[in-house]
Specification:
Blueprint: H1 2-18, E1 28-31, E2 37-43, E3 46-49, E4 65-66, H2 70-79, E5 83-85, E6 99-101, H3 102-105, E7 116-117, H4 121-127, E8 168-169, E9 175-176, E10 180-188, E11 203-209, E12 214-219, E13 224-225, E14 230-231
Parallel strand pairs: 4-5
Antiparallel strand pairs: 1-2, 2-3, 5-6, 6-13, 7-14, 8-9, 10-11, 11-12
């Protein structure tokens, strides 16, 4: 019993030291173009989606093709067409939101709901930490979900951002999940705003890793990642 109380007190001390109190602020209720409800939270002066985007239509009502397996996902990459899928092509994981390729993100018909936008790398850098492999335990823990991360590296979600480690899908349709959260941004190497990986003709994403580090880099537009939107 004494050992149990000691461990409990230790966990409490760690939580206090790292700011590990779960989000207790206000949620705003919204709906996307499919009528899917989603919540949003204020982080600083920015209003962010609290969950990953789940729409299967563009803002103008056009349907986005669903890839139901790796073969269909790869075919979309070859044809350079917008596509989405469930995490690991498994509909049982739909609560984690959909995975999109960059062709869907950048489509002029608009992936974000009305009044929202796909954030740039710079948008993320205002309040969502993007320190490069800093090793700072509290660096992104406040933005990570309280469950789902491997190596017992769950976050505190004290900011309310609630990043879940859905991982990513390669252009060939292979998934890597549970270790990282990947989010597409509206930034591409075309505008050359960001020097990192500037030789790559791809698009930028934000990565949150289980070891509580974060970074931005580029990936082929045929890969699949989660999407979070930012209020205009």
């Amino acid at each position: 019993m004494k050992r149990f109380l000691y461990n409990l007190n230790l966990l409490v001390l760690i939580a206090v030291a790292t700011g590990c109190s779960p989000y207790s602020g206000k949620y705003n209720d919204n709906v996307d173009q499919d009528g899917n409800p989603f919540r949003s939270v204020m982080i600083g002066e920015q209003e962010w989606m609290e969950t990953n985007l789940q729409t299967s239509h563009f803002r103008n009502g056009d349907e986005i093709t669903q890839a139901q397996n790796a073969k269909e996902w790869y075919a979309a990459y070859v044809k350079k067409i917008p596509v989405w899928c469930w995490v690991d092509f498994n509909k049982q994981k739909e609560s984690k939101g959909k995975i999109y390729n960059y062709y869907a993100v950048a489509d002029p018909r608009g992936l974000a709901p009305v009044g929202w936008k796909i954030p740039t790398v710079k948008d993320y850098q205002i309040n969502i930490s993007t320190r490069y492999w800093s090793g700072d335990y509290s660096g992104i823990q406040e933005h990570k979900s309280t469950e789902g991360w491997i190596w017992s590296c769950n976050g505190s979600n004290s900011s309310g951002f609630n990043a879940f480690p859905c991982g990513f899908c390669t252009k060939a349709g292979k998934f890597q999940i549970d270790q990282c959260a990947f989010f597409w941004t509206a930034s591409s190497t075309v505008n050359k705003d960001y020097p990192k990986a500037s030789k790559s003709p791809d698009a930028y994403y934000i990565e949150m890793h289980s070891c509580d580090c974060s970074d931005y880099s580029t990936a082929p537009k045929g890969e699949g990642m989660s999407v979070r939107c930012l209020k205009n």
